[in-house]
Design a protein that fits this description.
This protein is of the alpha/beta class. It has 2 domains: 265 residues, Aldehyde Dehydrogenase, Chain A, domain 1; 181 residues, Aldehyde Dehydrogenase, Chain A, domain 2 (3-Layer(aba) Sandwich), CATH 3.40.309.10. 38% of the residues lie in helices and 21% in strands. A 7-stranded mixed sheet has the order 14-15-16-13-12-17-18, with helices on both faces. A 5-stranded parallel sheet has the order 9-8-7-10-11, sandwiched between helices. A 3-stranded antiparallel sheet has the order 5-6-19. It is globular and about 75 Å long. The protein binds nicotinamide-adenine-dinucleotide.
């Protein structure tokens, strides 16, 4: 079958990269299947895209926000109409099972609807003044050209989080998707175009992070960078961006589920299996650590291993598949390396651990027991279907273990005791804490993001997405007709 060639999108036109080069991507569940040829963007492409976004800004910022919202509602409608086809494309492109790729598209639909509504809010504040006949308020203004740099694991949802929030606030966008998911990115941009986003308002440059991403981050005309991806890339972006830009970083994590001795163990089991092995463990919120109270540890461990044996690995398009492949060969090799490391560090490989001889990037669901904070498998983000169990003496010890990593994105506690739950909410150093549900499951109208090495403090979606993509300007209107000096002319 002929392999399709995909284009980049700059200033409302689909075209080839200035580099003249393309790259290919294969189906991770069957690496003999080539999915397409994609543009290998370079600096010139980035410059063109930023110029187009800059040119489009003045007009776009003056479109009334509710009108911008109408376009986003059309995006939502088109996503609904194409949901199944997009989900299938996504499963072929990055591997997660159909149920989850449908969820990914649904998350984009939810985000578009939320952000469309924001067009009728974009609230500033009014407040009092310490002086007579003086009015004080804040207004939200767009930033200008913003860069949206995204990973492959939520290839439509995360671009939608960033791009729709940026657009409703009146910014123009240069989008740099992951090189592993250019088809999803292209399909999303096609929908934005069809929904009526004017030319230049959103531009997409595909290609390597080290060239396209770096140049975009360093570009003087870019006023904000919204990035989701690996911690090391985030650290590099902080160095490259220089001053004068707003930088939002959403990065990896090592998320714990705490299971107390008073927990409903069947419920906890569902949460651990979903959190650890959903998306083949390739979620920033994956439950990669399970911290179990000593009184229930043996029992829970047996239950988990029995359940893991029932998981079916395979192509995510197959309706019976529970766990799909990893995204690429490098990911498979990394996970296999960590499994060896875990054994050498002294953790017990209690289930799985094998790399099957298939024509895809699979690794068996894997469970380590006896993991401790001095081990790499306890500390590092493996980003694969690997979880580890650690025993805790009591809640304080469990929280101490949960916090003993550099990351802080998502956490969970299973308990039937309200005091345990409230204490966990207070002391778990994570941007998200779930009580009696897994580490996964955020909803788009609430803030999403991590603390410590998982985030830079700017959270995504919800009202925080709007905060990131606007400057909240403070305005004073003095209608006294005389010079009034704050802090001095007080009565
Ligand atoms: P990655 O950091 O390798 O790539 C992310 C994006 O950054 C890609 O588009 C890539 O091309 C680009 N990039 C790479 N180098 C760059 C550079 N020097 N300058 C600018 N851009 C550059 O991450 P990934 O492998 O695509 O995604 C997996 C990671 O993302 C995991 O660590 C995961 O936890 C994290 N993640 C975090 C969240 C969150 O919201 N916290 C959500 C999903 C994924």
């Amino acid at each position: 079958m002929a392999v399709a060639t995909y284009k980049m999108y700059i200033d409302g036109k689909w075209g080839s990269s200035n580099s003249g080069e393309t790259y290919t991507r294969v189906n991770p569940a069957n690496y003999n299947q080539v999915l397409g040829r994609f543009q290998q963007g370079n600096k010139e492409d980035v410059n063109k895209a930023v110029d187009a976004a800059e040119d489009a800004f003045e007009k776009w910022r003056n479109v009334p926000p509710p009108k911008r919202g109408e376009i986003l509602l059309r995006v939502a409608q088109l996503l609904k109409e194409h949901k199944e086809e997009l989900a299938r494309t996504m499963t072929r492109e990055m591997g997660k099972v159909l149920m989850e790729t449908r969820g990914d598209v649904q998350e984009a639909i939810d985000t578009c609807e939320l952000m469309a509504g924001e067009g009728r809010r974009l609230f500033g504040r009014t407040t009092t003044s310490e002086l007579r006949d003086k009015f004080a308020m804040t207004v939200r203004l767009p930033l200008g050209v913003v860069a949206c740099i995204t990973p492959w694991n939520f290839p439509i949802a995360i671009p939608a989080w960033k791009i729709t929030a940026a657009l409703i606030c009146g910014n123009t966008v240069v989008f740099k998707p992951s090189s592993d998911t250019p088809i999803c990115a292209t399909k999303f941009i096609e929908i934005l175009e069809k929904a009526g986003v004017p030319k230049g308002v959103v531009n997409m440059v595909t290609g390597p992070g080290g060239t396209v991403g770096t140049h975009l981050v360093k570009h003087k005309k870019v006023r904000a960078v919204s990035f989701t991806g690996h911690k090391d890339t985030g650290a590099q972006i902080l160095k490259d961006a220089g001053i004068g830009k707003k930088i939002g970083l959403e990065m990896g994590s090592k998320n714990p589920i705490i299971i107390m001795d008073d927990a409903d163990l069947e419920l906890a089991l569902d949460g651990v299996v979903w959190g650890a092995f959903g998306t083949c463990g390739q979620r920033c919120t994956a439950a990669s650590r399970v911290i179990v109270h000593k009184k229930v540890k043996e029992k829970f461990q047996r239950m988990l291993i029995e359940r893991a044996k029932k998981l079916r690995m395979g192509d995510g398009l197959h309706p019976k598949t529970d766990v799909g492949p990893l995204v690429n060969k490098a990911a498979q090799e990394k996970v296999a390396k960590y499994i060896e490391l875990g054994k050498n560090e002294g953790a017990k490989l209690s289930y799985g651990g094998k790399v099957p001889k298939l024509k895809g990037w699979f690794v068996e669901p894997t469970i380590f027991t006896g993991a401790s904070p001095d081990m790499k498998i306890f500390q590092d983000e493996i980003f694969g279907p690997v979880t580890s169990l650690t025993e805790a003496r009591n809640l304080d010890h469990a929280i101490e273990l949960a916090n003993a990593v550099e990351y802080g994105l998502s956490s969970s506690i299973y308990t039937s005791n309200i005091q345990n739950a409230m204490k966990a909410i207070k002391y778990l150093e994570y941007g998200l804490t779930y009580v009696n549900s897994s580490t996964i499951g955020s909803e788009v109208h609430l803030p999403f993001g991590g603390t410590k090495a998982s985030g830079s403090g700017h959270k995504e979606v919800g009202w925080t997405g709007i905060e990131f993509f606007t400057d909240e300007k403070t305005v004073y209107i003095d209608y006294s007709g005389k010079l009034q000096r704050a802090q001095i002319d007080i009565e």
